Amino acid sequence: MATETRQESAGCTENGNSRDLMDTPSRKRRVGEVTDSISTPEKKTCSSNGRVDLNKKRSDYLEWDEYFMAVAFLSAQRSKDPSSQVGACIVNSEKKIVGIGYNGMPNGCSDDKLPWSRTAENRLDTKYPYVCHAELNAILNKNSADVKGCTMYVALFPCNECAKLVIQSGIREIIFVSDKYHHTPEMTASRTLLDLAGVKYTQFVPKRQQITIAFDAINPTVTNPLASIASP
Ligand SMILES: [Zn+2]
Q: In degrees, to the nearest 5, what angle opens at C-alpha 33 toward C-alphas 31 and 38?
């Protein structure tokens, strides 16, 4: 099996460009092995008095894998699916995002008129015949000529239908977080197809459980006018 997990050291420069574009990411372990790699984020660069040293670059910036996976997870927040929100983010060899998507009903098909249920007596009353998976939308949303040779970051291991799309579109690697449907026929078929096509799939083990997006981080007065009065 090609499944591996990965944690990658960041290599961005001040202007956000990568200096390790062609680096081979380190592979820490295969799925199923015990790991103690979930830990707290790196400490900020601090001076002796405990304050952030503004003369040194930050050390707690997002690593590439964290960044792209976080984009996938943020995209998932757009999903209207009440039971499963999945996002996907496609990245090319230059570490540039070329496609983003999340699960939802097809364009022009009202998501108020179609069912969102997972179970029903009649399968036509469930979401499954209608919903577009995040992987499909990310591929079709591409802003480049194609996605050949790209890597897809996705929250859930892709189903067999999405594996077909990944293979046919030329994506060469999948980075996923959860494989919770591992034992279903769809995921077994997916692995069979990906293995035959030589598409690598790697589990991403996050070092931190949460990344906070604070709109007032750049300026506390933006969302809290009283902050400017409270702080000197
Ligand atoms: Zn799928």
A: 90
**What is the CA(106)–ligand 1 centre distance, in A?**
14
pLDDT above 90 as % of the chain: 66
| Centre of ligand 1 from the C-alpha of residue 157, in Å | 8
Distance 9 CA to ligand 1 centre (A): 29
User: What string of H, E and C letters represents the secondary structure of the chain?
Assistant: CCCEEECCCCCECCCCCECCCCCCCCEEECCCCCCCCCCCCCCCCECCCCCECCCCCCCCCCCHHHHHHHHHHHHHCCCCCCCCCCEEEEECCCCCEEEEEECECCCCCCCCCCCCCCCCCCHHHCCCCCCECHHHHHHHCCCCCCCCCCEEEEEECCCHHHHHHHHHHCCCEEEEEECCCCCCHHHHHHHHHHHHHCCEEEEECCCCCCCCCCCCCCCCCCCCCCHHHHCC
Expressed in angstroms and rounded, the spacing between residue 90 Cα and the centre of ligand 1 is 15
How many angstroms does the Cα of residue 152 sit away from the middle of ligand 1?
13
Task: Report yes or no on whether pTM surpasses 0.85.
Answer: no
Which residues are close to ligand 1, an ion, with C-beta < 5 A?
133, 159, 162
Catalytic entry in 8, 135, 161, 186: 135
User: Is there a catalytic annotation at residue 135?
Assistant: yes
Cα separation of 5 and 33, whole Å?
10
pLDDT digit string, tens, across residues 36-47: 333 444 445 555
pLDDT of 70 higher than 60: yes
